[in-house]
Amino acid sequence: MFSLGWSNQTFITEFILLGFGNLPELQTPLFLLFLVIYIITMAENILTLVLVVTNRHLHTPMYFFLGNLSCLETSYTSTVLPRMLASLLTGDRTISYSGCITQMYFFVFMLTAECFLLLVMSYDRYLAICNPLHYAALMRSWVCIQLVSGSWIMAFFTSTLITLLMARLTFCGPNNIDHFFCDFAPMLKLSCSDTSLIELVNLLLCFAIILPTFLLTLICYVCIIATILRIPSTTERHKAFSTCSSHLIVVASFYGSIIISYMIPTAVLTPLLNPLIYSLRNKEVKKLFRLLHTGTLVTSG
Length: 301
Fold this sequence. Notes:
Elements: E1 2-3, E2 10-11, E3 14-17, H1 27-54, H2 61-90, E4 94-96, H3 97-130, H4 135-138, H5 141-167, E5 176-177, H6 184-189, H7 196-229, H8 234-259, H9 266-281, H10 283-294
Parallel strand pairs: 3-5
Antiparallel strand pairs: 1-2, 3-4
Pfam family, one: 7tm_4
Subcellular location: Cell membrane
Family: Belongs to the G-protein coupled receptor 1 family.
């Protein structure tokens, strides 16, 4: 922190991430644990992305969206974990003001983008199961690109707005963030200026983005489940449900993590679990992994 010579006001130039508290005896085990999580998460998502890009059998809307989700979660994890690992390794939990604002910007960006991307993926499954005859016509390549581009653009504008409003706030101390990364709410608690505007904007964005995307995703799955239950054949019902069950689990884990975001480090767990969920429940991906393991996978352009 530094003080202005002409006043008694002190402004924060760095924050301290309290993280998991003062537990020196757990620093090394926690570092090793999160290092393994980071490596596995990056490997899972990068491998998924490579498979989707390089194999022509996966050049479908569902895998195009899955590839974007893997790309998003690779960035998601890299926004939080490297700084946490550095803190656990060195014991230095300080982060500069600009570094904290930057980390918050990318975290809000990824969070918002995932809300929209999961909605797009649920809409894709809705069309595939509830309107299969028109699926190919409705979910063309340019439509998929527009849907994904819209998700990224909305995330950009949302995170930019929140970050600009946060940058206008004054932080006079204390500078201890009760979290392991620079999240919006813990930072807001430390401001010594009027936060009513940013709190109002944040509330409006929650009602305009998180709530509608969740409700629309939920509606899609209500329609999907209702359609599946009307299928007379047990085999066909099971086949239809298997095509969307992995995404439903991911949606539940994502929105569940938002609800309990201050109880467990969900920013770490969600990107780790999502590729496992998709891989373990998807026949095409499992087949490709087996082929890759035996060395018989031929890359197609």
